[in-house]
């Protein structure tokens, strides 16, 4: 494969929410924030079955446009959730090729969901309480997922 | 993210509290919360009341932004919220006011059995249901449908299932909207939504969805019980599920498009998850047409699930379901928006009633009710947690006057899933439930701790409020015997 993928790095925490799941995600840069958020989604919803060997992998090219960065973030996560459910896949790695406030191009690597124990069904990422902030140390996002 | 709500609440009476319009500039109506002092303490612990105030911003909202006693923090709307908007006065419809699981709802079946008749078979029945009914994340069912049939499901709802032999006409009569809401347009549903919902008819799903064998342990309204045909010790079966992936996709796509309607129609809401458009706008009409498709899909799904329950009982007990008296009592939606007529001041108005974790509760005599329930009012089914109780209630005229014909929908969460998972040992919980005569089978191990009774408010407290406030009336109380969780 021509594109270089990095090993997953856990860079998020689950924060309290009465009905759903809220996540706080960190990264030193914006592509990393989007990638870490995507990794978090699938890490909390599915655990790889150790007996599943050499699962079939499929790479998807994903393009998203939006009016704001917040919208882009939500659209990205919801597109991944939708695609994974429709295709019966769990996404396990991501590469953000280009990103600005309003556009994103990325690759997402999906593995057959039958090789995973599916613990949690995440219906969607929501705008409620959504915060994307930039500081000297990098980027942080807080997002509530409907489960 | 947990911070107690510090706003001021005005006491209206023992069961109603008001967030005044002055709480936040932009509120068009006050917020009214149905709760007693005990429940209110918990309700104040998160951001649910702020969400009640936010919903009061919706253009065209009439009377009040309402919250039922099972209210808890959601996303956009609180769970347990009711908001009615005046269609002719620019009233809006909000996909977030319905939620991702469109027409998540509940149905209750009766049987001819008394507890003593089948107490030795409960475990076998629970296993049979667990094996026969696809459950869990992304579960797919044996009920296969062609692409053409999928469109048919979206229009015909539960009627499609009846046509396939998965039930009888009488089931439709006992389903809200007769199992299919008119005006569904399959062209308003994207290909992705079809793909996401594919092969999920007749599947339970995961999370708080469940299937339960229950026994009636308390009668409150003898006349209503006689009308329905219920008695102490009788076995019932409850099914809680929704529109699965198809509904999630419809909601996602329409929230995405309606974000842009906020500017277009100059709508000011404090939370983008409340994205909305006038009901009488191209965007509002398109969402409504798609939402109805998902709602119909959910009614078809619950009809298929009931068919599978009937088949499991037949296999284990060796009788036909008809002979076992496995009739549908009623099926109600608790995540939906409906166009309904109510008196507002001196005039009758067409309102768009959002019920987000709230149940329709039409009073006696309402024309939408089947003849058999005209005298007692619409059956309202309120599930509790897997260790305590569930209820059958009926709607009242007071609900028609005060809450746009709405009441609560369940116990309501008290603890977050992470809190519950941290504090509950699943094995110990299963043993404790078993000692109380409750068998639990779950597809996902994590579900048991997250759905533990201590994660929920006591449904008895919640139902006590809606009964005492008069917006629905207790008929009987059930306790669980066998529970299937997704």
Secondary structure layout plus pairing:
The complex is a heterodimer of chains A (about 150) and B (about 475).
Chain A: E1 12-15, E2 21-27, H1 30-45, E3 46-48, E4 57-65, H2 69-87, E5 89-99, E6 103-112, E7 116-118, E8 124-135, E9 138-146
Antiparallel strand pairs in A: 1-2, 2-9, 3-7, 4-6, 5-6, 8-9
Helix pairs in contact in A: 1-2
Chain B: E1 10-13, E2 16-19, E3 31-34, H1 37-43, H2 48-55, E4 65-75, E5 77-86, E6 92-93, E7 105-114, H3 115-118, H4 122-132, H5 147-156, H6 158-163, H7 169-173, H8 191-197, E8 210-219, H9 222-228, E9 234-241, H10 244-264, E10 277-278, H11 282-317, E11 328-333, E12 335-344, E13 347-356, E14 359-360, E15 379-382, E16 390-395, H12 397-402, E17 406-407, H13 417-423, H14 426-435, E18 439-442, H15 445-450, H16 459-469, E19 472-485
Parallel strand pairs in B: 3-4, 18-19
Antiparallel strand pairs in B: 1-2, 2-3, 4-5, 5-13, 6-10, 7-9, 7-11, 8-9, 8-19, 12-13, 14-17, 15-16, 16-19
Helix pairs in contact in B: 4-11, 5-11, 8-10, 10-11
Can you give me a brief rundown of this structure?
The complex is a heterodimer of chains A (about 150) and B (about 475). Chain A has about 150 residues and is of the alpha+beta class.
Number of helices of chain A: 2
The main β sheet of chain A shows up as:
4 strands, antiparallel
Sequence stretches where pLDDT stays below 50 over 5 or more residues of chain A: none
Q: Determine the oligomeric state from the structure.
A: heterodimer
CATH architecture label of chain A: 3-Layer(bab) Sandwich
Helix content of chain A: 10-25%
Query: How many strands of chain B?
Result: 19
CATH class division of chain A: Alpha Beta
Structural class of chain A: alpha+beta
Number of helices of chain B: 16
Under CATH, the topology of chain B is which? tRNA-splicing ligase RtcB
How much of the sequence of chain A is in beta strands? Answer: over 45%
Domain count of chain A: 1
- Report the mean per-residue pLDDT of chain A as an integer: 90
Tell me what portion of residues of chain B adopts beta-strand conformation: 25-35%
What's the SSE pattern of chain A? EEHEEHEEEEE
Principal-axes shape call of chain B: globular
Mean residue pLDDT of chain B = 94
Largest sheet of chain B: 8 strands, mixed
Most extensive protein-chain contact, per-chain counts: A-B, 38 and 48 residues
Strand pairing plus helix content of chain B: what structural class? alpha+beta
